[in-house]
Amino acid sequence: METIIMEFVVPFAVIAIMYFWLGRFPEPYPKSKNNRREIAEVMGLWLLVLIAMIAFMVSVPADAFKGIPSNSLLLSNIAYMIFPLVIVPFFYVVYVQKWTHADLGIRMPRAWPMVIFATLLFALAGLLPYLFGLTEGLTWMLIAFSAYQPAFTEEFFFRVILQGKLERALGQNKAWFYSGILFGLVHVPVDFFGPQWYSSGESYLAAFVMLFGQITAGWMFGLIYSKTRSIFPGMLAHFMTDGRLSSIVLNLIP
Predict the structure, then answer these.
(1) Number of domains present in the structure of the chain
(2) pLDDT of residue 84
(3) Is residue 215 part of a domain?
């Protein structure tokens, strides 16, 4: 019962709070002139990331995913993912579609109740592994890596790019909903034959639960971005909830 509450009831309660009570939705992005093309571009970019993710997973020996990742593994992951997650979408939306820095989420956040709530919520989520003695001591180098990937790269790709394009095609509500699903589904390789697969004890049930958790996390991050219109609150939340806050505390307080 406790597992059901934590994995299913709590996330939907948090999503309801974020949606109904924490700030208003801003003016939507301008409607796209070609909705089908916009959606096709979203799916094309998403498939590029999925293929790169699978290629990385199959190129690395399974033993490399067991335990704390090495610096070389993380550098290899960044090399695989930087083009599909950052470089390709950035150059496309900036130089082809003429997005501005505001379109890229490089701005002060609005909806400060959402910012405060999300910061406190994900700080707590990030501290839970430390509080329950489940934290593995990551080095400062690994913690620094995680600030870039996944915190920056995934927020930039899934919220700024995919959600931004979906909003132009489908509107705000459908945008954060569908981008959250795409965010979860891209983690299938990680959950079923990557690091999460081994950390879960190679359990299909645990993998499906993690996948559901990633989808609900995608909805939460999507609502944060949709209401704040800034990449920074989501980056901070993503960084903390990946357990890096626990690692920081563990390094400061052995």
Answers:
(1) 1
(2) 97
(3) yes
